[in-house]
Amino acid sequence: MAEVEEPLRIRRYEQPPSSEEFSSLIEASNVPAVFVGVSRDWKAFSRWNPSNGGLDYLEEQVGSATVEAMLSTSAPVFYGDLRRHERVPLSFSTFLTSCKLYLHHGDSSRNNSAFMALSDPDKTQSTLLDSPDKIYLAQVPILLIESKERCPLENLMEDIRMPIFLKAKQMSAINLWMNRARSKSSTHYDPHHNLLCIIAGCKQVVLWPPSASPLLQLMPIYGEASNHSDCNIDNPDLVGNATAQSRMEYAQKIILHAGDALFIPEGWFHQVDSDDLTIAVNFWWKSFMMSNMSEHMEAYYLRRILSRLLEREKDKMLCKSPFASLRCKKMAEIATDFPTGGDESNSVVQRGNINGNAEQQGVTLEQLEPFTSVVLHELISLVHNTLNSSGQNQVKESHLEALDVTVENNCTHARTENSVLLEDNPVTSIFWTIEPLVLRKVFLVMVHYFPRTLEALVLHMLSPTGAEVLTRKFDEMDQQTTKEEQKEFYQKFYSVFDDQHAAMDAILNGKEIFSFQAYKNVLNLHLGVSDLGVNDDAKIS
């Protein structure tokens, strides 16, 4: 069972922090926090209470206002996608009347004829009242800081008290959230920091950090609901669905009661369930990062962030590849069967014996370590078998028979053990599972004894994943050798190719195809973009 990392766990405060504590310890960490009883000393806490005449009070104060309501055909779930809801004008007094009927008559008021009997000349209002449970007052402005227009509900500001720890913040908006019947919001994030304060009723909030976006089936970044998830929150399919199971494992659930407040940092995904007759107020303000990001730096930050996500995705792709687990285990067993052992000066895989080609070091095929012989034999067999089966001209090498005899004599049983390398993408599997200096030794032996096979291996057998793994092995080799040794190795490696540029292109082109697939994954997982029109011929294996 996966667990949420400790630094990302929601914190709970029985007493509100100071402005300095909130900014330096809570807001700066970008982790949600619950503040108990923050709104209990507001006038709204007692004046708006539906059980204590609060609906009458609200009607007296702002009943004449016309507000924009969210009408959903999928109620009680309210999705952010514009195709699944619409914004409609509604008299606040009409909405309050439906709330009063529900308060006094309960579920029987859902289809109460009293709704139709209300004297309302506007046909739209009558239609809305015919199905009041599909209405949700979501994000109705009480105060818009950056707008010069007066908000219809602005009179309610005198009942709201700014929390002490927000007094230094430059607010963007203060909004009212109110529902008559139980409702669910779709999973989404906000582009602002958010303090959600419960005035009446109860809300359950489920939260995920921004890093969980690959689990949440995000809507496309270019769409109208780009900050929303397309997950089915009403009936999630958890059976046999690893992504859905992981999504629930990484979720954190918080129950907010009247008086409580929840800090939801920008970018944190949240899904909210509201009880009947729940009233809340939220504060939005821009984060320090977004407030201070220079426009001329945005493109640079975008590229840097995409590059970081790209590198992580490539690592994940390799770890999830079929050769990543079984291959490592099997090759480790084979390596155990054929230890280097003995005097280090006699080991052909020691660094001193790797330099130069095999003949210069006095190493013949018969002197190769059994494990190295198996790897060499597997690579050569793969190249020849593949080219033969595809009808291409067979590669002629004078030392193939000697290698076959060596493998037969030294490690007959290893071929059976090592047959696992022939599954899926065997060349990539071999590259992935052996030590970089062993692979370096194999390549140097091939340079001297089997140059045409090495050429065919790179030009015809290297998949995009194989190219990525090979270049990583090259990097690991470089970390374990000197600059002079590196220069000598690459000169010998590329000397076998009639066209050295073609060899370099084969490796780099494969690596870029692999990276492009990782890039597509990043856009799909984090931005909801699934189709880039990539050439179907560019296969990843």
Automatic annotation (TrEMBL):
- Provide the family line: Belongs to the JARID1 histone demethylase family.
**Domain of life from the UniProt record:** Eukaryota
Q: What is this protein called?
A: JmjC domain-containing protein C isoform X2
> What PROSITE patterns does this protein's entry cite?
JMJC
Q: Name one Pfam family in it.
A: Cupin_8
Q: Residue limits of the JmjC domain?
A: 151-300
Tell me which InterPro entries the record gives: Cupin_8, JmjC_dom
